[in-house]
Design brief:
The protein has about 260 residues and is mainly α. About 75% of the residues lie in helices and about 5% in strands. It contains 8 helices and 2 strands. The chain has helices at about 1-20, 25-30, 35-55, 60-90, 105-125, 155-180, 190-215, 220-260, and strands spanning about 130-135, 145-150. Strands 1-2 form a two-stranded antiparallel ribbon. The longest helix is centred in the last third of the chain and has 38 residues, at about 220-260.
Length: about 260
Amino acid sequence: FFSFAVLAIIISFTIKGIFIYHRKDKSLRRSSPVFNFIILLGLDLIFIALIFYGLTYTTATCFLYAWLLAIGVGLCLSGVLVKSYRIYRIFKNSEATALIISDWKLGKFVILVIICELGLCSLYSFVSGILGPVVIQSSSDIFYKYRICLVPSEAIQFTFLLIIYLFNFLLLISISVFALLTRKIDDSYSEARGIAYAVYCTILFQICFLPLVYTSQDSTGSAMTRYAVTGIIILGNGYLVLTFLFVEKVFRLQKRNAAV
């Protein structure tokens, strides 16, 4: 997973470089470039979090994984949501103006989401003690032990992880609603369909793979199973977002400029 994560980060930086080089392109400028970079930054943090997840568990790596993942997911989801909302307002509200849907107004929502993510992550990490590695003895194999990042209280562990998942799932559902409402818009805003494909595939990934993380219990090899499933979820979702939201945009951009 380390190699795939590093490759994804390289792709992300390449896309950012192309966007900067073609920053005066009209189609790129109307695709909310600020939020394109916010989403790409979020993806970078998510992939970096996966790298830390694969290292030996220490208090530092546990914190880095949890916090980078929370911030990265918050940036990605809020960035995609405000892009979807802007497209919806442009095509569904004839009175929409540049002032109403300015980057700053939409950016306030991104800031609010990150504050919520940081607040929930802080409560999870500190309210019952420090988040850190814990050695678990398998109940089915006396010779099998594994390390996992946990907080001291099982109730806090369950409650705050559930709240964090529900908060992000609510953002995901909101994106899917706007994606559904804008599915038939003009071809010049085809990124709306890219957003729809990305969010639907993301939801499908969560439904298919996330339960495996919490049903592996503590049998022999369960830690490796959780790591593999978590890696598949993060890499799968990340590459889908890169592909549907950015790679296609880059190809269109290069093709259009080559024809000039």
